[in-house]
Design goal:
With about 150 residues, the chain is mostly helical. It has two domains: about 1-75, no CATH class; about 100-145, no CATH class. It has five helices and two strands; from the N terminus they run H-H-H-H-H-E-E. The chain has a two-stranded antiparallel ribbon. Strand 1 and strand 2 (about 130-135) form a beta hairpin. Helix 2 runs antiparallel to helix 3 and helix 3 (about 50-60) packs antiparallel against helix 4 (about 60-70). The longest helix is centred in the first third of the chain and has 32 residues, at about 15-45. The N and C termini lie far apart (about 105 Å). The structure holds zinc ion (ZN) (2 copies). One zinc ion (ZN) binds near residues 100 and 116.
């Protein structure tokens, strides 16, 4: 049976060996790429890059899978950047459409009180009657002290 097997496959042996080598080469390249990816990802997230690269080197896909489970959710820089972005967008929105700080309904910039919840938003200048912020000590329109 073995002889028959050998006889049948003999002409194809070089191709089979070449296939095996290519597979081995692919596997090594994949392994190196996996270790490198793990190292870079851990570095980006500030999570012991050399330790995780070694784990991926020793355990291959199993080590990488463990890293994927325990890695920090996101790099600290990414998180900070996103937070700043959100804050900037919020500031932009409030500048475009001011809202009441108590009930968050939209108000006009010169409203003295919120029409929805009656919260005092601005005070009237004692001299010119322009709407002033509550903590302003002087009217910027007519220079009257409040
Ligand atoms: Zn309100
Ligand atoms: Zn005034």
């Amino acid at each position: 049976m073995n002889d028959l097997f050998g006889e049948v496959f003999k002409p194809y042996m070089p191709a089979i060996q070449l296939g095996q080598r290519l597979f081995l080469l692919f596997f090594i390249v994949f392994w190196v790429a996996l270790v490198f990816w793990t190292w870079r990802d851990a570095q980006r997230r500030g999570a012991m890059p050399w330790f995780w690269a070694t784990v991926a080197l020793l355990f291959n896909v199993a080590g990488w899978a463990i890293y994927m489970v325990v890695r920090p959710p996101e790099s600290r820089e990414d998180a900070r950047e996103r937070e700043l972005e959100i804050r900037a967008r919020e500031a932009e929105l409030t500048r475009a459409n001011p809202v009441c700080p108590a009930c968050f309904k939209p108000v006009d910039p010169d409203f003295l009180i919120c029409p929805s919840c009656m919260k005092k938003l601005k005070k009237e200048c004692t001299s010119c009657g322009k709407p002033l912020k509550l903590d302003w000590a002087v009217c910027p329109y007519c220079k009257t002290k409040q």
